[in-house]
Write a structure and sequence with these properties.
It contains 13 helices and two strands, in the order H-H-E-E-H-H-H-H-H-H-H-H-H-H-H. The protein is globular and about 85 Å long.
C-alpha cells in the first residue's frame, strides 16, 4: 500500500503544480490586457481630440483668410458704399462696387426657396415615415436620394432648357432667366436634405407617443401634426438648416437660370446672387475688383453664419419654453 500511495502523492503534487502556475499567470494576463485596453483608449481619445481640433482649425483658418482677404476692399471702398450701394460696375472707367442688389437677391431667393421647398419636403418626409406603405416608400425614397446625387450643373442645364422657356411662355416674358426661375430651381435642390433628415427624425419619435395620442381619440393626421412633428422638431430644423445652407451657397445652377444682371430683386427680372457675382468675374478679375470679390465672399460667409446662429437660437428658445 505504501508503494502505491507514494506514487499517487507524487502524481497529485505534479498535477497541482501547473494549476498554481496557471493561477499565478492569470493576474499577469489581466494586468497586460488592462494595460493594452488603457493604451488603446488613450490613443483613441487622442485621435478624437486631434480630429476635433482639425475641424476647429479649418474653420478658424477659413475665417481668418476670408477676413484678411476681404477687409482691404471694404476699407478702400467704404462700408456704406460697399454694402448699401445699388450699382455694380466693376469694369467701368470709374468702377462702382455696390452689392446691395446681390444681398437682397440672395435673401429673397433663399426665402422663396424655403417657402416652397420646406412644406413640400416636410410633407414628403411625413408621407415616407408615417403614411406610405413599405412598397411605395421603397420607390419614392430612392428617387429622393437620386435628387441629392444630381450635380448642380445638371439642375442648371434642365432649368435653362425647360424652365426658362416655360417662364417665357407662361408669363409672356422676353427673357425667362429671372429670380423666380432661380427660386424654383433652388426649391427643388434643397428637397433631398430636408426630406432625408426630417424622415430620420420622424422615425426616431418613440412609438409610445403616437400610440398614446391615438388611444386618447386623436386621428392619425392629428397625431402626426400635434405629436410626431413637434417631437421631431430639432431634427426637422437641422434638415432645414442644411437646405438653407445649400440654397445660399449654390452658384452654378443659379448662374444658368438667373440671368446674372446686377438688378435690384424682382421676380421677373434677371438678377445676380452673391455666389454668382463671385463666380462669374473671378476668372478675369484683378486689383481692386478681385479684392471686392473676396469681400463679397466674406459677406456671404457672415450671412451663412448669421442664419445658422439665428436658427439655432430659435430652436433652443423653443426647447426652453417646452
Amino acid at each position: 500500500m505504501e508503494q502505491v500511495k507514494q506514487p499517487l502523492g507524487k502524481v497529485a503534487f505534479e498535477a497541482a503544480e501547473p494549476v498554481e502556475k496557471k493561477q499565478a499567470k492569470q493576474p499577469a494576463n489581466r494586468n497586460l490586457r488592462k494595460l493594452v485596453r488603457d493604451m488603446v483608449e488613450k490613443i483613441m481619445n487622442t485621435l478624437f481630440f486631434v480630429c476635433g481640433m482639425v475641424a476647429i482649425l479649418a474653420v478658424l483658418l477659413i475665417t481668418g483668410y476670408m477676413i484678411v482677404s476681404g477687409l482691404p476692399a471694404i476699407q478702400q471702398i467704404g462700408v456704406v458704399d460697399f454694402l448699401f450701394g445699388t450699382e455694380w460696375a466693376s469694369t467701368a472707367a470709374e468702377p462702382k462696387f455696390g452689392i446691395l442688389p446681390f444681398i437682397l437677391t440672395s435673401v429673397w431667393g433663399t426665402l422663396g426657396a424655403i417657402v416652397i421647398g420646406v412644406p413640400i419636403g416636410l410633407l414628403t418626409a411625413v408621407f415616407l415615415s408615417k403614411v406610405a406603405s413599405p412598397k411605395v416608400a421603397g420607390v419614392v425614397r430612392p428617387a429622393v436620394e437620386l435628387l441629392a446625387g444630381i450635380p448642380s450643373v445638371v439642375y442648371g442645364l434642365i432649368g435653362m432648357m425647360v424652365l426658362v422657356p416655360a417662364m417665357m411662355d407662361i408669363f409672356n416674358l422676353n427673357n425667362g432667366t429671372c429670380l423666380l426661375a432661380a427660386i424654383l430651381v433652388l426649391a427643388i435642390m434643397i428637397l433631398p436634405s430636408i426630406i432625408s433628415v426630417s424622415e430620420t427624425a420622424l422615425n426616431a419619435v418613440p412609438k409610445e407617443y403616437e400610440e398614446a395620442s391615438l388611444a386618447l381619440g386623436a386621428t392619425q393626421i392629428e397625431t402626426i401634426f400635434k405629436v410626431s412633428i413637434p417631437a421631431a422638431k430639432s431634427g426637422i430644423v437641422a434638415g432645414v438648416v442644411l437646405g438653407v445652407g445649400r440654397a445660399i451657397g449654390e452658384a452654378m445652377a443659379v448662374m444658368m437660370v438667373a440671368g446674372n444682371v446686377a438688378n435690384m430683386p424682382s421676380l421677373f427680372k434677371s438678377v445676380t446672387f452673391l455666389t454668382t457675382a463671385v463666380a462669374k468675374e473671378m476668372s478675369y478679375a484683378s486689383g481692386l475688383q478681385r479684392q471686392a470679390l473676396f469681400s463679397i465672399a466674406l459677406v456671404l460667409f457672415c450671412f451663412i453664419m448669421l442664419i445658422n446662429a439665428l436658427l439655432n437660437f430659435v430652436l433652443k428658445k423653443g426647447d426652453n419654453h417646452e
